[in-house]
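Troubleshooting log. The previous structure file for this entry was overwritten by mistake, so regenerating from the original sequence record. Sequence copied from the archived sheet and checked twice against the printout by T.R.
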Amino acid sequence: MQENKNDYGLPKEIKFCKKCVISNQRPSSAVEFKTSYNDKKEVINFDKSGICSACVYHEKKNNIDWNKREQELHNLLDFFRSKDGSYDVIVPGSGGKDSAFTSHILKEKFGMNPLTVTWAPHLYTSIGWENMQNWSHIGGLDNILFTPNGRLHRLMTRNAFHNLLHPFQPFIIGQRIIGPSMAKKFGVKLVMYGENQAEYGNSIKDNRNPLMDMSFFSVNNPYEMKFGGIKMKNYIEKNKFSFGDFRPYIPPSKKELLELKIDVHYLGYYVKWDPQECYYYASENTGFKANSERTEGTYSKYSSIDDKIDPFHYYTTLIKFGLGRCSYDAAQEVRNEKLTRDEAIYLVEKYDTEFPKKFFKEFLEYIDTSEEKFYNTIDKFRSKHIWMKNSNNEWKLRHNVSGTGLED
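Regenerated output below.
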């Protein structure tokens, strides 16, 4: 019997939601610049009936008065609306379906004057760059594309992979702070993101608040911020980087945000959010295009397709939490009645553990890592209560949603 130690503070007994296909190993969102090796993770909640909090909240959404919520949005936007034609809302995003929907509807339906801001992907895909361009040229949105210091960002991404098995961590930090940072720079008081991650399994109480928690995008002592598990001050001391090199990663302080009266809201609080409907809208209005082929690790062609590093974000999630890209895609599509649970189970069984080969060599080159070191790091972080080796010495899931795991 192989060791069955549970890692990251995850529940030792693996359970799957009876309505969708997500498991009780799904981690909740964290303050990324505080992340360290083997932090204990908060996870999605399951009720006594075996239903995950994301499904419970989705049922509650059906009882929300969305007309009333839209009126709340009108009132909010009227309060922040510019009277001189200047920008009155910052919309962070990549030109993907969610940010395209958010920015376009704010401009065309609600009459706002949004400035879209983009923290550049590590390595653009061709379809990602095309969608980014279409966002402005077809969708009619102003955009600022910010690309951070590549030498520093690559080093932090490498460290995030080897120290945390979380290569997307530095990017997520940038993605979360660019909205408030640009709002401060341009004197704009309102930032609007798309959906709240609480929709997918964070605490349900987070969905009752239209505002993003300030802890995600504010900091008091930037030198204590961690990138790839290493404090900023250590990079400066050991790697010949300056404080100025880190400036784009440093969000405003909570004190500054309160003094400047910058609000960061989720559009998903005011509008009933459905990712596939966002895709249809973006396709019709901003020139958004799906990929010509499905993304490795899932059946989807339209979600998170702008970055060549993105597949390894999902693959490392699979290794640590037993949930791959298909599990995330299929779970939300079951909730939004685009798939039945049986269909979702079939798709997860077929695609969830697929290795992302297409951009593998480019990923290794980007993080300056050999294939051997890559797999050594993968196995170092592999959660042993989730994985075990079969008779052919291959790593397999102990339990999966289809009930065909090695210990099912």
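DSSP finds 15 helices and nine strands in the chain. Archived copy saved in two places this time.
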